[in-house]
Specification:
The longest helix has 23 residues. This protein is α+β, with helices and mostly antiparallel strands. The chain is built from nine helices and twelve strands. A hairpin with a 3-residue loop joins strand 6 and strand 7.
Length: 318
């Protein structure tokens, strides 16, 4: 028996960082995926194969003892094995076309696909149960996660997310042409989030104003989407970028990328934790082919389509 699950990458359209502190955010799943395959073994180990390497540890050994990139998988395997005493070992293989560490949700998609793939060998879980397991797993490497990334990787499509009131699907027919451009600078979400928390500690009043502004901006975005108003959507992206500049998660490279697309985009901003990673830009169809030259050869870019499937999982008889 082989259990296979896949989950999509994500972008944050509005509200990154502020969402950790209780504001709303808008996210979309995109058409890049990670696939996790799990099989039983007789080796009394948990073996993990990924492009970052291979590890093999005795079953029920602590996830704290392995490198960060493997922690969520060991955590999930152990959690599930703990309630299934006859398991003799698991081998988990990760295949991904999501770039790692650039704000496109690679680790969240891995957590979601792994939660679905491992658990399916034992029990059929609902999407909500998979989501809860994946957030627990993500917390082994990123304790302050808002849960927004795992949520959109689980449900797919476009969502409005809020830690206290939950998730609302945005059923929009609005055609968004988004370019994703990678600065090729890897970042650590954990340290960017910690720095923003320091900013908040140092200036509670301004941070709270920025949170209010972000919530107001998101309400306006929802209306703009309902009205198919891409001009307002673009303006709101640029306005959101000003808030991200203020909380200091931008840098010269990201600013230069945003500026270089100004003449052809309706708006652009960082997506995800910042400090590197990717920007997104709203670009009209007839300008799409101008993007690579404006960004320069050292950057990667592609246009993103929204994934509507979210996590997909099932078993295959070998
Ligand atoms: C990271 O993709 C998004 C952040 O808002 C962190 C989080 O929501 O957990 C920076």
């Amino acid at each position: 028996m082989k259990s296979i699950a896949s989950a999509p990458a994500k972008i944050i359209l509005f509200g990154e960082h502020f969402v950790v502190h209780g504001t709303k955010a808008i996210l979309a799943a995109i058409d890049k995926r990670v696939t996790v395959t799990t099989i039983f073994t007789e080796n009394k180990t948990i073996k993990i194969n990924s492009e970052l390497g291979t590890i093999e540890v005795p079953i029920l050994s602590s996830h704290e003892d392995v490198k960060n990139e493997f922690k969520p998988f060991v955590y999930l395997a152990n959690k599930i094995i703990n309630s299934e005493p006859n398991v003799t070992g698991l081998e988990i293989t990760i295949d991904s076309d999501i770039p790692i560490g650039v704000g496109l949700g690679s680790s969240s998609a891995c957590c979601v696909a792994a939660a679905a793939s491992i658990s399916e060998l034992f029990n059929k879980l609902s999407s909500e149960e998979i989501l809860n397991l994946s957030i627990e797993a993500e917390k082994t490497i990123f304790p302050n996660t808002s849960g927004a990334d795992c949520t959109v990787c689980t449900y797919g499509g476009m969502i409005e997310y809020d830690q206290s009131s939950g998730t609302r699907k945005i059923e929009s027919t609005f055609q968004i042409n988004l370019v994703i451009a990678n600065s090729m600078i890897p970042h650590s979400t954990k340290s960017s989030v910690e720095r923003v928390s320091k900013f908040k500690e140092n200036d509670e009043e301004r941070f709270s104003q920025l949170c209010d502004l972000e919530n107001g901006l998101i309400d306006e975005v929802i209306t703009a989407m309902k009205n198919n108003d891409s001009t307002t959507l673009g303006l709101k992206m640029s306005e959101n970028q000003e808030y991200l500049e203020e909380i200091q998660i931008s840098n010269d490279t990201l600013r230069n990328m945003i500026n270089s697309l100004n003449q052809i985009s309706l708006g652009s901003k960082i997506t995800g934790a910042g400090d590197g990673g990717c920007i997104i830009a709203l670009v009209q169809d007839d300008n799409m082919d101008k993007v690579p030259a404006l960004l320069g050869k050292d950057k990667e870019c592609f246009s993103a389509k929204i994934d509507t499937k979210g996590v997909v999982w099932g078993m295959i008889e070998e």
